[in-house]
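Re: weekly structure request thread

Next one in the queue (156 aa):
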Amino acid sequence: MRRTTRTALPVGTTAVALAATLLLAGCGSEKSGTSAGHSGNGGTVSSTPAGCTAKGQLTAADNGRTVCLSKGDELRLTLDGTKARPWKPVSVQGKGLEAINAGIVLQPGDSTGAWRATTSGTVKLVSSRPLCAQLTTPGAVSCKGIQDWTVTVRVS
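Done, posted below.
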């Protein structure tokens, strides 16, 4: 049988823990639909409607998400691929975004994009890549699976 010993925290530690808890409780209490501002790096820091994420930078991990932007916000995308498993260029389906300079793609297989929210609307960003490397060796087994990537962007 194990014996457990409890030690009391110093009085100052309890006060600090309580203050930190109260401080964190105040975070995120802003009502939906109001704007807290706009960050300088293209990301948005405004609160968003339910089901939306406010993001200025997308990656492959954002697959399936819905992102909400306000007019004037910028959205950037980087899909890291490989030469053997390259991402297709991102297609834009819908209205509300205008393409802007995304910079230079440095790695083979990567796909990038950048857009500015211009008009209210809904846009789907879509790309895909092979699930496994395509083999060129005669007689070798190769998979034909595709990894899809989609993000819905709502501009208001």
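Residues 82 and 109 are 4 Å apart (CA to CA). Confidence is low (pLDDT under 50) at residues 1-47.
Next request, please.
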